[in-house]
Amino acid sequence: NVDLSGVQSAISGIGNVFTSGMGALGETFNGLKQGIWDAFTASAKNSVKTFNSGMLGFAQFLLSTNPNVDSMENLWKSITLVISSFYLIIFLVIGAKFLMSGSNIEGREQAKEWLKNILLMIFFVQASYLLYVLILDVNSALTTSIFNLIDEDFFVFSLDSLENVGLELIFGGTYLFVLILTIVILVIRYLIMSFGVVLFPIALALYFVVPLRSFGKALLSFLLSNIFISFFASLIFLFGSSLLELGLFSGTKILVMVSIFLLVDFLLLYFLLYSLLTSTFNFILKMKSFGLLGKK
Fold this sequence. Notes:
It is built from eight helices and no strands. With 296 residues, the chain is mainly α. The longest helix has 60 residues, at 5-64. It is elongated. The model has no long low-confidence stretch (mean pLDDT 76).
C-alpha cells in the first residue's frame, strides 16, 4: 500500500491557504468598498455643505442680526419734529375741553385723561429711537441664545445612510426652494424692521390720541410681531433639531428639515400678512366711522 497521507496533508494545507486568502480578499474588498463610500459621502457632504452654507448663513443673519437703524436717524428726527408740531394744538384742544366742561365732572375727567396721554406721548415719542433699538437688542439676544443650542448639522444634508441619500436626492430641490422662499420672506421682514424706527414714533403718537388709538395699536402690533417672530422661528428650528436626535426621525432628516422650514415660512407670512391686513381693515373701519369713506 502507498502512503498518501503526505499528499492529503499538502492538499489540505493548500485548501486552508486558499480559504484564508479568499477571506482576506473579501475583507479587503469590503474595506475598499467602505472606503470608496466614505470618500464619496465625505466629498458630497462637503460640496453640499459649501453650497448651502452661504444661504444658510444669510438666513441666520437675517433672523438673529439687527438692521443698522443709524442710517434712519435723520428721518426719525424729521418725523418726531413733525409730531411735536402738533403738541401745541393738542394742548389747546385739552384746554378748551377743560373750559367747556365747566362743572361737568365727566368732561373734566376726560380732559385730565387726555392731558395724561399727551404727556406720555411726548415722553415715549422722544424716547422712541432708544426704545426701538432696545427692543431690537432684546429680540436679537433671545434669538441668538436659542440658535446657539441648535446643532449646526441640522441645516445641511447628512448623507450618512443610503436611506437619507435617496430622500435627499428626491427632496433636495424642494428643500432648496423652501430655503430660498425663507430668505425672501426674511429680507422683506428685515426691510420692515429697518424702516420700523421711523414708523415706531408715529405708532406711539397715534396710540396716545384716544380717537386714533386703534391705528396706533394696529401699527404697534405690526412692528412688534415682525420683530419678535424671529425668536419663535428659532424655537421651531430648535424643536426640529431635537426631533432628529430621536431614532424615529434619524432616517428622514430631509423631510424634517423641509417641514420645519415650511412651518417657519407659514409663521412668518401669517404674522406679516395678518398684521398688515388687520391694520388696513382697522384703518378702513375708522375712516368709515369718521364719515370719510362710504359717501358719494
